[in-house]
Amino acid sequence: MMAGRGRLVPCMCLGLFGVLCWVWVSFASFPDEQLPLEALDAVDRAAFQPQSALSEVHFASISSYAGPGNTDRRSNKELPILLWWSGGLFPHFPGDTERIDCGTSSCLVTSNRKVQLYKRTASIIFYGTDFRPYEAPLPRLRHQTWALFHEESPMNNYFLSHGPGIRLFNYTATFRRESDYPLTLQWLPSLDYLLAPVTVSLDEKNRLRKEGLAPVLYMQSHCDVPSDRNRYVQELMKYIQVDSYGKCLNNKPLPEHLQDTSTATGEDRSFMTFVSRYKFHLALENGLCPDYMTEKLWRPLHQGCVPVYKGSSVVADWMPNDHSAIIINNFPSPKALADFLKHLDENDDEYAKYIEFKNFKSITNARLLEALETREWGVNDMSKPNYLNGFECHVCDQENARLAAERAYKRAPTKNKPPQPKMANNSHMGCPLPRPGYGDVKDLPADDEWLQIWPQDYWQSLDQAEGLESLIRHNESDPSLLWKHIQSIAVSRARGKH
């Protein structure tokens, strides 16, 4: 590596789009111990001193996170700092700063942005939904890494699904199993949740069917989404009866006592019993991406209903067995799916095979069992850290290891290797271009509302990712210049130079 004030440090590898990747791309040559305070505004100068914004009196040790390998005895003034850029996600209360004692090391964590440029601030943690390239903390300093926490839908920020966007981050916690700290089963509380007895028996469901209840339930009120699920359901409705209670394709009113939104989001018992009467639940995610699976999938399994699923393209990797869910992508058309659902509706023995996993001996998926057994974070489990605390400890341990390797290399470069730059890639997110829920995109009319929103949002996010990468390469300190860089890239591309 070459080092010098204002120089760029390349990591010699090519990303998905063939663009040179950069890690800790821009930097300033600050003294080892502190920033050049004369360069700071007088009002903010004190914020960069350890005893002001990071006064020890404000810190509390979170001893419950300490692992048996943690022998860190340093004082708060000696620990690296992790800055949660999205303050609303700061996983500590009260206050805005804490000391954390993790598996092998300790750190200070804060949501106080005044420490952004402080030399001890080793990493900045971002929440993916809130990450906006025109608000990024620039210039990007060489001594800081960036960490990404993003457990929500890919539709929340397609910036992260493009190579130039995701490779800005050194550590990731996403729903993808390939991320550094996977959150794939975040919506599955436990194995017991899956094994819970069925809420409504098959005999009762058959009785309700004879009284006119549809075999299939659809309940969605978020209608304009990139998965375009309504278009598929609308076609499916031509071939099989579907009761739709939400705002999307509504054809039945909810009972008045269930119309409060909180009953659906909080697993209210009366609400769960109401929807459990159905044999099949249409479980269609709002965004499509490998390993992105939500309560839409796990709740029907918990209740003892059969999810008819479209979302993660690799959902079969996580199912209790081969007869747990009906995967829409396995059928050539909505009519073919409808015919299969009718067959199961009329054959109790065949339908019952999809509930056999309720017996532990029928769970054959070793990957699922191992993941539930070994994950260090818990869901509604006070004996384990939540995944926010877990990820910040992951970053803390990684950063302490990196800093220790840097010190060792500086002391004896012939005996020790420098720490290798770590960078995320498209396998950490990499969600595909949204496609119509049914039919081909070329057959959609030009004024189709979905067509005008989601494909454009996806490609505009690529523009922003390339623009931010350009800002960092040019060592810019003003994120509002993003649009200028996007325009420059577009002009270069039009001239065949990009």
From TrEMBL:
Pfam families in the cross-refs: Glyco_tran_10_N, Glyco_transf_10
Identify the Gene3D superfamilies for this entry: Glycosyl transferase family 10, C-terminal domain
Region described as Disordered: spans on this chain: 411-438
Subcellular location per the Swiss-Prot or TrEMBL entry: Endoplasmic reticulum membrane
Q: Which reaction does it catalyse?
A: L-seryl-[protein] + GDP-beta-L-fucose = 3-O-(alpha-L-fucosyl)-L-seryl-[protein] + GDP + H(+); L-threonyl-[protein] + GDP-beta-L-fucose = 3-O-(alpha-L-fucosyl)-L-threonyl-[protein] + GDP + H(+)
Q: Which region is the signal sequence?
A: 1-28
Enzyme Commission number, as recorded: 2.4.1.-
Q: What is its main location?
A: endoplasmic reticulum
Every copy of the Fucosyltransferase C-terminal domain together lies at 216-368
SUPFAM superfamilies to which the protein is assigned, alphabetical: UDP-Glycosyltransferase/glycogen phosphorylase
Keyword Oxidoreductase (UniProt): no
Per the record, the similarity remark reads:
Belongs to the glycosyltransferase 10 family.
Task: Give the function comment from the record.
Answer: Protein O-fucosyltransferase that specifically catalyzes O-fucosylation of serine or threonine residues in EMI domains of target proteins. Attaches fucose through an O-glycosidic linkage. O-fucosylation of EMI domain-containing proteins may be required for facilitating protein folding and secretion.
Protein name, UniProt field: GDP-fucose protein O-fucosyltransferase
Q: Which organism is it from?
A: Labrus bergylta (ballan wrasse)
